[in-house]
Amino acid sequence: MKRSPLLLLLGGLMATGAAYQPQPGPMKTILAVGAHAGDMELTCGALLAKQRKAGDRIVLLHLTLGEGGNPKLSPEAYGAQKRREAEAAARVLSAEVLFAPYGDGELVNDAQARAYVADVIRQVKPTHIVTHWKNSFHPDHKAAYAITVDAVLPASLPGVKGAHPAYGGVRQVFYAENWEDMEGFEPYVYLDVADAFETWDKCVTQYEFVRGGISSYPYLEYYRALFRVRGAEGGFTHAEAFDIDPMGKKQILRSLP
Fold it and tell me: Does residue 139 have a pLDDT over 60?
């Protein structure tokens, strides 16, 4: 029988996966790493809004602008538009935003990209990271996952030189639910985002492609409905769901809970 997903809040997660307990106390720093501007806002923007309201620091890293996604505009013109939209979305979230120097459709998990993200991790010092799931039909999404995950360890090693000192304080990496990344994705962590849903809506509609001005894909309707479905599954009005690494699902018990 398939094990039911755990109904957990973000603050109750521990990197070991041995026993999940609430972690009140110091402010968290959440780094959301997306392949394109708009990816993380759509998939985990309500989580980011909720945690920012709780006093946590939120940083968005867009590995590319997604500047190739508008057939009516040149990549240069659409890239400038996406940057403005990403900055506006970050303001709605009261988040910081960083832009990597990579091109849409050209993201590769190589040493340079890993070093870049590792140095961002060292600079930002996140306690938690959110990024894409590992399987996707979009090559940039797969690369973003691999780059991010592969950057966590070198970021923590003093022997790996970079612009900032080594940092090993990442507690957990979460993988957001994206309609392009669904192969093998299993919703495991459900976060109640009912109180952040309106902020999420305002955030993502800063992007023209979400409002429906570019693609025929109904981004806004899809994610509104998805959050409602995940909310029903989790016993909430609206929820965002995340997967984690298999080792994080390991539970060690002395008796049945």
Answer: yes
